[in-house]
Amino acid sequence: MAEILRFPARPDHRLRTALRSLDAALADQQAALAQFRAELGSLRQSVMGLQGSVVAYQGNLARLSQDARSGAREARSWNGPPITG
Predict the structure, then answer these.
(1) Judging by beta carbons within 10 Å of its beta carbon (0-12, 13-18, 19+), is residue 57 exposed, middle or buried?
(2) For position 26, what pLDDT does the model report?
(3) What is the Cα 70 distance to its own chain's centre?
(4) I need a labelling partner for 84 at 20 to 30 A (CA). Which of 14, 18, 29, 70 fits?
């Protein structure tokens, strides 16, 4: 069940209540921003790790391509020129 809050009767009470709410909202915002910055740092680390993996993968693909070309050349030298129809 919802709790019913009394509205402050005097203007200075309303101002005090509004300022407390603003302070609470600013504190929440500060905490959220700190958490966001921490998550960005975590994301940065993940992306750097991914970049390293992609660079290693590219190197492996380049070596595989070179090995395949070398194997193809060697196979052609064993079999002679390709037969054309």
Answers:
(1) exposed
(2) 96
(3) 39
(4) 70
Q: Of 43, 62, 41, 63, whose CA–CA distance to 51 is shortest?
A: 43
Q: How far is CA 78 from CA 8, 69, 83, in A?
A: 96, 14, 14
- Read off φ and ψ for residue 82, nearest 5 degrees: -65, 150
Least-confidence region, from 4-8, 19-23, 43-47, 62-66: 4-8
Other C-beta atoms within 10 Å of 79: how many? Answer: 9
Place of tokens 């603003």: 22
pLDDT digits (tens, 9 = 90+) for 35-77: 999 999 999 999 999 999 999 999 999 999 999 999 888 887 8
Tokens of 38: 């921490």
